[in-house]
Amino acid sequence: DCVVLQLQALNMSEEQTVSLVDVLEEDEELEEEASAVLAGSDSDHCSYPQGYVKRQALYACNTCTPKGGEAAGVCLACSYKCHEGHDLFELYTKRNFRCDCGNRKFTELQCKLFAEKEEVNTLNKYSHNFFGVYCTCSRPYPDPDDQVEDEMIQCVVCEDWLHGRHLGCVVPDCVELQEMICESCMNRNPFLWTYAAHLAGKDSCSSVMFSCSCVHTQLVCLLLCDLRERVSAASLSFLLDESDTVLAYENKGKNSEQTQPGHDPLMSALDNLNRVQQLEIIHGYNDMKSELKDFLQRFAAEGKVVTPDDIRQFFEQQQSRKRRRVDAGRFYSP
């Protein structure tokens, strides 16, 4: 399915071709992104017993709690075990949230992983994200009616996702920009404007720059001491907690995925086969790569877009040829 979706999105001209290597490289990038979000959360056990988890991957179920009802969020494990086949909204990550799955908000569903739950989680915070809309424009993502290519950025305070063009400021073109506070949250906490102006200095790539010149060191120290008091009073202490950041969570997920033994299922499968079987699989892989490349080049030469039906037909032909070879082998075997 991943291959189908990726190839569908590739508009190939006469000068542009796509090889299986390109597809696999893109798939690897997608897997790394998924690992960053999901590997930091438990995919087998409901997170409810852990209480209000500092940060975790969350989902909202449009099947069980549609718009017009009460907002609710479920953990990664419950999205797999309790809501399989349901219409889910991926919420990325949220902080200080306790899994709602099976509580009072779910009138016809009981959590399969942890049944003894309170009726509601009073400390959970909800937004329109839980009904599948985002940004100040309250639109879905991806938005089928929006033809503008625009990156969405998450506010570290309200944790809503906003289009770059709806932030109320110019987004710095800098990879070091990791975290953002939206204009609405800045206005709700106006004291933050003071620190943004002083601590950002001349560096437009960072909302708060902690690495300052000696001239500004004393000012920065005074501001940071005052900042700690103010953010604590405004219940924004997470802004000063580096372990709370999305970046820290993603790095935890990546490290967890890399340290797990045998996290590459293909290599694990090959290790369990003998030499002859390994060679057969490698030759089969190379044959498919060559055939897929030839198949895609025909579309590139004609300037056509590869559709899911085209890819499905390709793999059906592969399976048909494989069955004919197997049947022929059985017919002629002594």
UniProtKB/TrEMBL annotation:
Pathway note: Protein modification; protein ubiquitination
EC number(s) given by UniProt: 2.3.2.27
One cellular component term from this protein's GO annotations in UniProt: cytoplasm
Keywords: Isopeptide bond, Metal-binding, Phosphoprotein, Transferase, Ubl conjugation, Ubl conjugation pathway, Zinc, Zinc-finger
InterPro entries registered for this protein in UniProt: UBR7, UBR7-like_UBR-box, Znf_FYVE_PHD, Znf_RING/FYVE/PHD, Znf_UBR
Pfam families documented for this protein: zf-UBR
Domain of life: Eukaryota
Enzyme class, UniProt record, top EC level: transferase
Keyword tRNA-binding attributed: no
Coiled-coil region(s): none
Transmembrane helix is among the record's keywords: no
Ranges annotated as UBR-type zinc finger: 44-116
SUPFAM superfamilies named among the record's database cross-references: FYVE/PHD zinc finger (SSF57903)
Domain UBR-type: 44-116
Annotated catalysed reactions: S-ubiquitinyl-[E2 ubiquitin-conjugating enzyme]-L-cysteine + [acceptor protein]-L-lysine = [E2 ubiquitin-conjugating enzyme]-L-cysteine + N(6)-ubiquitinyl-[acceptor protein]-L-lysine
Alphabetized GO MF terms: ubiquitin protein ligase activity; zinc ion binding
CDD domains registered for this protein in UniProt: PHD_UBR7, UBR-box_UBR7
PANTHER family, A to Z: E3 UBIQUITIN-PROTEIN LIGASE UBR7
Described function: E3 ubiquitin-protein ligase which is a component of the N-end rule pathway. Recognizes and binds to proteins bearing specific N-terminal residues that are destabilizing according to the N-end rule, leading to their ubiquitination and subsequent degradation.
Protein name stated in the entry: Putative E3 ubiquitin-protein ligase UBR7
Primary gene name: ubr7
